[in-house]
């Protein structure tokens, strides 16, 4: 076969077509039958196969020496591998033993480290408990020296020192985990805290008196009340202080008014006077110097719920629109009382909390304004109709 013949036959197709991944014999023949006679295509393909075979033979002859040496080099390889198996197996076993030994050592090390951490944590907790014990002992000594009834300024200072130590003790106890020692300290703390709270309640009831007339006495009472509220705030007993104001100071005043006069206007007047002159209310406004004072909310949490309870139990008729004139009068008086309360709040935050409180919304929901306006409309219509009738009769006469 001459070179010119191969070159001529190769023009009927491109050998790269066979390398395509989507090559199909049927498509190949169908595509060539219209441009190349089938016998010519057959001859060209046969010539191409012959050339591929020749190329394969030349490639084998070219690398034949390396191919033969490859088989000779593999002779004895199995024996060498077998010789290496023993040492490698022994090395593998030794490494596994070493790995297990290191694992045990590491595990023992972690246990010892965890034990030391536990010891350090226990030592730290014991130091904290010792400090808490020292603080409790100091507070107990202050309370032993301080009389049951605090009368002098030195007694008040001792009470303040005891409160400071109790506060420090509580913070120390809170950092410790539960243990028998912690429970013992907690019981002692509860006892000391109870004694301090009793003294604070006695002082708060004495110095919250709003009936003093001297300006100096009022200033002194307000300063003392501020210190008392500070100690309540230290102990996180703000709500208890608010309850004392309601249950032991304001309630007695309101009960007296309700017993002697017994109407809503007198009740509101008494409470408005209390708000105007009470040293507690005045002290709660000084939250700029004492930021902790913002935690108190004597009106929203105390006074207004207390007043609403009295109204619901003793004066539920004020919300009845059956008598429009009385309903209107009651609403005007309650609205004026609400204005006084809102003007007494120390900040806008307290005012917002009051208006969004459940108690205030409950109070407002009891006023049946729709029924009231309907009755008013009927009354107005009746009056106009009566006037028209009288006018008509007068004109006829």
Question: How would you characterize this protein structure?
Answer:
16% of the residues are buried. The chain has helices at residues 3-9, 25-32, 38-62, 64-73, 77-145, 153-174, 180-207, 215-234, 238-260, 264-277, 279-284, 299-314, 324-344, 348-355, 358-365, 369-396. Helix 5 runs antiparallel to helix 6 and helix 10 runs parallel beside helix 13 (324-344). The chain contains 16 helices and no strands. The chain is mostly helical and 397 residues long.
Name its key features.
397 residues; mainly alpha; 16 helices; elongated; disordered N terminus
Task: Compile the SSE list and pairings.
Elements (H helix, E strand, L loop, with lengths): L2 H7 L15 H8 L5 H25 L1 H10 L3 H69 L7 H22 L5 H28 L7 H20 L3 H23 L3 H14 L1 H6 L14 H16 L9 H21 L3 H8 L2 H8 L3 H28 L1
Helix pairs in contact: 5-6, 5-7, 6-7, 7-8, 9-10, 9-12, 10-13
Task: Quickly describe the structure.
With 397 residues, the chain is an all-alpha fold.
């Amino acid at each position: 076969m001459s070179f010119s013949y191969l070159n001529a036959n190769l023009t009927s197709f491109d050998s790269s077509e066979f390398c395509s991944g989507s090559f199909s014999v049927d498509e190949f023949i169908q595509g060539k039958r219209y441009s190349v006679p089938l016998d010519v295509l057959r001859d060209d393909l046969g010539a191409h196969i012959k050339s591929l075979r020749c190329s394969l033979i030349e490639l084998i002859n070219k690398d034949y020496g390396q191919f033969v040496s490859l088989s000779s080099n593999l002779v004895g390889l199995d024996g060498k591998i077998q010789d290496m198996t023993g040492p490698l197996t022994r090395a593998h076993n030794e490494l596994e033993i070493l790995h297990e030994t290191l694992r045990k050592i590491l595990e023992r090390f972690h246990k010892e480290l965890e034990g030391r951490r536990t010891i350090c944590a226990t030592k730290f907790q014991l130091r904290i408990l010792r400090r808490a014990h020292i603080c409790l002992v100091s507070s107990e000594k202050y309370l032993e020296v301080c009389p049951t009834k605090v009368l002098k300024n030195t007694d008040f200072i001792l009470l303040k020192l005891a409160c400071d130590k109790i506060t420090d003790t509580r913070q120390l106890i809170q950092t410790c985990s539960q243990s028998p020692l912690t429970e013992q300290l907690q019981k002692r703390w509860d006892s000391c805290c109870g004694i301090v709270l009793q003294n604070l309640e006695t002082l708060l009831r004495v110095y919250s008196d709003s009936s003093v007339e001297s300006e100096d006495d009022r200033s002194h009472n307000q300063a003392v009340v501020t210190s008392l509220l500070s100690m309540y705030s230290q102990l996180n007993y703000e709500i208890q202080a608010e309850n004392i104001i309601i249950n032991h100071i304001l309630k007695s005043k309101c009960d007296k008014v309700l017993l002697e006069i017994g109407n809503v206007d007198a009740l509101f007047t008494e409470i408005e006077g209390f708000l105007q002159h009470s040293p507690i209310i005045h002290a709660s406004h000084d939250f700029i110097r004492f930021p902790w004072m913002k935690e108190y909310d004597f009106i929203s949490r105390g006074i207004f719920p207390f007043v609403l309870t009295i109204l619901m139990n003793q004066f539920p008729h004020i919300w009845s629109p059956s008598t429009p004139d009385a309903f209107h009068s009651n609403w005007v008086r309650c609205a004026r009382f609400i204005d006084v309360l809102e003007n007494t709040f120390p900040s806008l935050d307290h005012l917002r909390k009051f208006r969004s409180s459940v108690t205030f919304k409950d109070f407002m929901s009891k006023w049946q304004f729709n029924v009231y306006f309907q009755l008013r409309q009927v009354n107005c219509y009746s009056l106009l109709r009566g006037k028209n009738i009288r006018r008509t009769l007068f004109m006829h006469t």
